[in-house]
């Protein structure tokens, strides 16, 4: 009877619940634990007294659309028309769901690269379409042989995620050139690019799809203020897409939510006048480096982390347990919650790696690392 018979409760819900239940330090679900910028909380407090509590236009608060247009221009030198090519969504999750619902038809195939974030497959299945899961290479670079083999006349969309959750990997210019070559052959395929961590990058430069002239006229780019302004619970994100795609996306959006949370949109719009996203990478790089240093003497082997606020660690030299059991034991015996990487694979591939979120204040990172060094 179920429309999603193989879909279960998300691992983020499971691990966060377990962290609360056992009073563990929660490095599982990705969210910051430090206070939101006071300038933003002041804006929202003052807005509460103003008349900003009713429906906004379906596409979003016009000044916010304009400011996102300026952000895209400033960050990537791409000019977009705010009123026709940007849509404010209830987080990137709704952005992605809406795009898939609007674009994908019965029996279409959508390529997903594993390990992958969990919100892509369900909307594909609800469209009676097929999710074609293709594993990345062992170093999490795209495997172009496998990807090319996965493309067919049924392919409608490929979903990519840069910087990548959970591995922090970032595609290179050569990766994009390979995709562009494939796109020359498969002219009807749409690219859905999940770039929610676009501003959280370190030594490696993030190549936005906005900058790819051969791709952007067929691309839908999803982003989220949750990540960029440390406000994951506000659930305000946005899509950028060419008008002919956006017209279809808006048809779904207007009946899924119609319009998004008014006071948060206005607050973000005003806040964008005060802040820049330029410091975000440096801010999280310091946290990444600190967390890695704290774990230097642990038995975990830390994988490279080029972006996002996630650190993947191998526990292969510590235990043979599967990663779900290992994460559960980590909560019960050491009081630290993490995410098993197998949950990002369709086939549950267990590579003995887990993911820690380092978007935490230093005290939390220190206490978590102290416990992890005892493992
Ligand atoms: N994509 C990725 C890769 C994510 O990590 C997340 C959230 N952690 C989302 C999409 C969803 O973002 P939002 O919370 O804005 O819905
Ligand atoms: N994106 C967050 C993560 O990767 C989780 C958000 C959620 O719980 N759905 O941890």
From TrEMBL:
Write down the CDD domains for this protein, in alphabetical order. Answer: AAT_like
UniProt-listed InterPro entries: Aminotransferase_I/II_large, Kynurenine-oxoglutarate_AT, PyrdxlP-dep_Trfase, PyrdxlP-dep_Trfase_major, PyrdxlP-dep_Trfase_small
Residues in Aminotransferase class I/classII large domain copies: 24-372
Q: What GO terms are given for molecular function?
A: kynurenine-oxoglutarate transaminase activity; pyridoxal phosphate binding
Cofactor(s) needed for function: pyridoxal 5'-phosphate
What keywords tag this UniProt record? Aminotransferase, Pyridoxal phosphate, Transferase
User: What residues form the membrane-spanning segments?
Assistant: none
Q: Name one GO cellular component term.
A: cytoplasm
- SUPFAM superfamilies from the xrefs? PLP-dependent transferases (SSF53383)
Identify its protein family.
Answer: Belongs to the class-I pyridoxal-phosphate-dependent aminotransferase family.
Query: What name does this protein carry?
Result: Aminotransferase class I/II-fold pyridoxal phosphate-dependent enzyme
